[in-house]
């Protein structure tokens, strides 16, 4: 099994977003020793494109000890820290929970998974939740279900086996406009039209370059 990889998917109208995102993903991968698997075609056309994330991850956790997922509509603005610094014993799944406007919702736009059977079983369970295939949050809704969250509004409702093996990491790893994190490491722009996302990403890319020029990344 290889050591670790960063994966992303930008298909259709999101290809242009992935082109922007890779401007910071590639140097981050070089800095922290990750291979890259950045794709522009859906893996499974039987469901909406966001579900191909689950198919990609299922493949990768068989091949890598550590798998990082980054959505195509984000920019790494602070490259100094390795996401793997969040690893701890007894947990195989890592992501941010956003808290805003009465919501508490995990966000699958940035995820870290340990390779192996636990992650494989988890991803199989996500895919099996066919009732969420066309939900407005797609695979994110299925992950919330497995974590024990209600969705209307999003909030924790019960303990689950997955929740016990999950670590909610600092919001700095997935800062969104509705729940901005101070000193963000990754700025993520879900929910906007592609053109708006591209403009926001370009501004964040400029921020990343500025930080590099003054030695802050």
Describe this structure in words.
With 217 residues, the protein is of the alpha/beta class. The chain contains 6 helices and 10 strands; from the N terminus they run βαβαββββααββαββα. The strands form 3 sheets. It has a 6-stranded mixed sheet, sandwiched between helices. The chain has a two-stranded antiparallel sheet with strand order 4-10. The longest helix is centred in the C-terminal third of the chain and has 20 residues, at 194-213. The protein is globular. The mean pLDDT is 95.
Keywords for this entry:
217 residues; 25% strand; single chain; alpha/beta; globular; six-stranded mixed beta sheet
The average pLDDT score comes to 95
What best-fitting shape do the alpha-carbon axes yield? globular
Helix content: 25-40%
Radius of gyration: 16 Å
Report the major sheet.
Answer: 6 strands, mixed
Distance between the termini: 30 Å
List SSEs in N-to-C order. Answer: EHEHEEEEHHEEHEEH
Number of strands: 10
Strand fraction band? 25-35%
Strand order of the largest sheet: 2-1-3-6-5-9
Number of helical regions: 6
Low-confidence residue ranges = none
Structural class: alpha/beta
Give a topology summary.
Layout: E1 2-9, H1 15-32, E2 35-39, H2 52-60, E3 64-70, E4 74-76, E5 93-100, E6 103-114, H3 117-128, H4 138-147, E7 149-151, E8 154-156, H5 161-164, E9 166-168, E10 186-188, H6 194-213
Parallel strand pairs: 1-2, 1-3, 5-9
Antiparallel strand pairs: 3-6, 4-10, 5-6, 7-8
């Amino acid at each position: 099994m290889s050591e670790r990889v960063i994966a992303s998917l930008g298909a259709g109208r999101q290809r242009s977003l992935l082109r922007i995102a890779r401007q910071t993903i590639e140097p981050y991968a070089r800095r922290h020793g990750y291979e890259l698997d950045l794709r522009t075609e859906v893996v499974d056309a039987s469901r909406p494109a966001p579900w191909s994330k689950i198919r990609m991850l299922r493949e990768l956790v068989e091949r890598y000890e550590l798998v990082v997922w980054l959505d195509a509509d984000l920019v790494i603005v602070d490259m100094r820290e390795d996401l793997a610094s969040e690893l701890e014993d007894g947990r195989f799944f890592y992501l941010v929970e956003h808290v805003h406007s009465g919501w508490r919702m995990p966000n699958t736009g940035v995820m870290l998974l340990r390779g192996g059977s636990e992650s494989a079983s988890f991803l199989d369970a996500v895919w099996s939740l066919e009732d969420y295939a066309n939900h407005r949050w797609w695979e994110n809704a299925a992950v919330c279900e497995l974590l024990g969250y209600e969705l209307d509004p999003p909030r924790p409702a019960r303990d689950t086996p997955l929740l016990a093996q999950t670590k909610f990491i600092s919001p700095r790893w997935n800062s969104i406009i509705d729940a901005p994190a101070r000193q963000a490491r990754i700025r993520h722009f879900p929910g906007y039209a592609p053109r708006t996302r591209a403009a926001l990403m370009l501004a964040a890319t400029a921020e990343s370059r500025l930080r590099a020029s003054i030695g802050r990344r």
